Amino acid sequence: MATMKDVARLAGVSTSTVSHVINNNRFVSQPVKDKILSAVAELNYSPSAVARSLKAKQTRTIGMLLTSSNNPFYAEVVRGVEQSCYERGYSLILCNTEGNTERMGTSLETLLQRRVDGLILMCNDRNPLSEALFLQYPELPIVMMDWAPFNGACDTIQDNSLLGGQCATEYLIGRGYRRIACITGPQDNTQARRRLSGYQKAMTDAGLTLEDSYQIFSNFEFSGGQKAMEQLLQLPEPPDAIFTCNDAMAVGVYLVLSRAGLTPGKDIAVIGYDDIELASFMSPPLTTIHQPTDALGKLAIDTLLERLNAQMTEPRTLVLTPRLVERESVGIM
C-alpha cells in the first residue's frame, strides 16, 4: 500500500508539500500540485482516515444509541439521521441497547472509545444513563431525543406530547365520541405519561368522565396495542373510540378489531400518534398525530454540529409541535 512518502518520492517533492495538497491547507503552485496529483493517481494512494482524524482531532463520525424496538418510528428517525450525516460528510455508528441497561453502558463506552465527534441518544426511560460516564467526556456534544430529563449538559429534542395527546382527544370529542379510551406506553416513560395527560386534560375540559378502565399503560409495541384492545373489548361497555399513543400500537388494535368483525372508522374510531409511513397504508388509512421523522433526524444532526462547532454555549431544549393528519379511521358519531 502506497504511503505519503512514496507519493513525495515519485513527485520529487517533500512529504509536507504532499500533505498541503491533500489537505488543501496551504498554497501550492499548480504545476507542483499537478505532479503530486498525478503521483497519487499512479500509486492509487488513499490517505489514512485514522491518521487524518488523529491530526485534526476529529473523526467525522457520529454515534447514535437506540433502544431496542420493533416500532417503525425509530427506524424512520434513524433514516433521517443517517441521511443528514451523509449529506454533511459524516459517518454514523449505530448501537442498539436491546432494552438492556448493561448493554447500554457497554455500547456507550464503545462509541466513546471510537472517538466519535458527538452522540445522539434515543432510548426510553427504562434504561437510565450512567451519568458518571459522561463526566469523563465533558466536552463531548450530546443530543438527546425522546428521553426523560437528564442532569448532564446536553441539548434535548422533545415532542410536545401533552399538546399532541390533547389534540388527538379533542378531535375525537369534536367528531361526537364520548366513550374514549387511551392506550399509552409504559408508566415510567415520560412521553407516555405526557400523552396520557393530554388525553385527560381534553376529557376533563369537555366535562367527560375519566374511566380508569379506559386508561391502559402498555409497551409502545404492536403487541401492546393488541393486548390492550383485547382488554377493552371485554369491558361491559367497551369504548367507541381509541386513542393509541403511537401508531405501532394502533396496528395491534386494528388486528383485534378485524378478528372481532369490527371496522375502524365505522364501528369504532381509532387515532394514532407518530404518522409513520405505514399509517397511510393501513386499511382504512390511520388518522394520527404527525411527527416529522426525517426533519427530526436533520434537526438532531444540525444541533449536534452547531455544538461541535462551538456555535452554542448553553444547553437547549427544542420542542417540536405535533399536528393532526386526518384520514379514514375516525368517523362521525
UniProtKB/TrEMBL annotation:
The gene is rbsR_4. The keyword Repressor applies. Gene3D superfamilies: 3.40.50.2300, lambda repressor-like DNA-binding domains. NCBIfam families: PRK10423.1 (NF007743). It comes from Budvicia aquatica. Keywords: DNA-binding, Repressor, Transcription, Transcription regulation. The lineage of its organism: Bacteria, Pseudomonadati, Pseudomonadota, Gammaproteobacteria, Enterobacterales. SMART domains: HTH_LACI. InterPro entries: HTH_LacI (IPR000843), LacI/GalR-like_sensor (IPR046335), Lambda_DNA-bd_dom_sf (IPR010982), Peripla_BP_I (IPR028082), PurR_sensor_dom (IPR057343). This is Ribose operon repressor. It comes from the Bacteria. GO terms for molecular function: DNA-binding transcription factor activity; transcription cis-regulatory region binding. Residues 2-56 form the HTH lacI-type domain.
